[in-house]
Design brief:
The protein contains twelve helices and eleven strands. The protein is of the alpha/beta class. The chain folds into two domains: 166 residues, 3-Layer(aba) Sandwich (Rossmann fold), CATH 3.40.50.2000; 144 residues, 3-Layer(aba) Sandwich (Rossmann fold), CATH 3.40.50.2000. The strands form two sheets. Strands 2-1-3-4-5-6 form a six-stranded parallel sheet. Helix 1 packs across helix 12, helix 2 packs across helix 3 and helix 7 crosses helix 11. The longest helix is centred in the middle third of the chain and has 17 residues.
């Protein structure tokens, strides 16, 4: 089986498309080595036709082309002949909010329009969560939409002693609670960093020694230590597919406080240390305090066992086989 993964994750940027490379390793471990084709910068006027020419040449004789993102990436792949699948990861499906610079908002509107006008050309549409499935299915046939979230490496991400993790990172080795805000770009309006900071400010009125750290600037290799060093992970996003950073936190038995995104409410209902709150700083801050004061859970990891990387890779290979049957 020859499979091409077309993507627009810049290989020169730190942590760009790390979830794709993690899944690729899982697929390779099961015997399939997909060929990665970087489509380049698709924001420029000539980017899309140039990417189409490159992909058409590289895809000659392949069995399946898998677009690893929606937006212009999906648009380019949708114009190719043969069997095609696209993975929607969140911001390529959800309509942009009214926050952030107007240039970014206009790009977001165009990105989601390109996604939605391309979906009917794909044989299968992979989504990250059951919530996304319920939202995407009305626009397509039921059998076309499949839930296959990105995998998490449960060997790399596992619980370790919090003090040891802090010492290895060079953090102060003490019992002060740490809130981790796991975004790669501190100015991303979808992540709402200002809301996160206000929530932490409110939590500090109760827990004055509370520390707040961004994950910005850390390589992905440091994420297992960051997740273990944190007392709680805070997510204030407008929307998410299935946030990989929350998977990684849960794999380390670190709780989360989040706005209502993805399939996280189902986990929060089962775990007292985890919370789903409206985008209100006081509600989020109070939830942070509860999470910090709760005993460290030993059961959070169980919620991501089904998303272990090799298992997800196996689900993807089964999808490919079904498409070619």
């Amino acid at each position: 089986m020859k499979v091409i993964w077309a993507h627009n994750f810049d290989p020169e940027l730190q942590n760009s498309g790390v979830f794709m490379h993690t899944l690729k390793q899982g697929v390779a471990d099961l015997g399939l080595e997909p060929e990665l084709v970087y489509l380049g910068n698709l924001r420029s006027a000539g980017g899309i036709p140039r990417a189409a020419r490159v992909l058409r040449k590289r895809a000659n004789g392949c069995d399946i082309i898998h677009a690893q993102f929606g937006s212009a990436c999906a648009f380019v792949v949708s114009r190719m002949p043969g069997k095609k699948v696209v993975s929607l990861r969140g911001s390529d499906w959800y309509r942009i909010s009214g926050e952030g610079p107007i240039k970014d908002r206009l790009h977001g509107v165009l990105a989601t329009r390109l996604t939605r006008m391309s979906l009917h050309r794909f044989d299968r549409v992979v989504v990250m969560s059951h919530r996304m499935q319920r939202e995407v299915e009305p626009t397509l046939n039921h059998d076309q939409v499949v839930v296959i979230p990105d995998g998490v490496d449960l060997v790399k991400f596992q619980p370790v002693d919090r003090r040891e993790a802090r010492e290895e990172l060079g953090f102060p080795v003490n019992d002060e609670p740490v809130v981790l805000f796991p975004t790669l770009l501190a100015t991303n309006p979808i992540k709402r960093p200002a809301l996160a900071e206000k929530a932490v400010e409110f939590a500090r009125t109760v827990v004055p020694n509370l520390q707040f750290r961004y994950a910005t600037g850390f390589p992905h290799s440091s994420m297992p230590l960051l997740m273990n060093a944190a007392s709680v992970v805070l997510m204030t996003s407008v929307h998410e597919g299935w946030p990989n950073t929350i998977k990684e936190a849960l794999a380390c038995n670190t709780p989360f406080v989040s706005t209502d995104v993805s399939d996280l409410p189902g986990i929060a209902k089962l775990e007292p240390s985890c919370s789903i709150e409206p985008p209100d700083p006081k509600r989020l801050g109070a939830a942070l305090v509860r999470a910090i004061r709760a005993p460290r859970s030993e059961t959070l990891r169980s919620h991501v066992m089904a998303m272990e990387n090799r298992r997800v890779a196996g689900d993807l290979l089964q999808l490919y086989a079904a498409m070619l049957a």
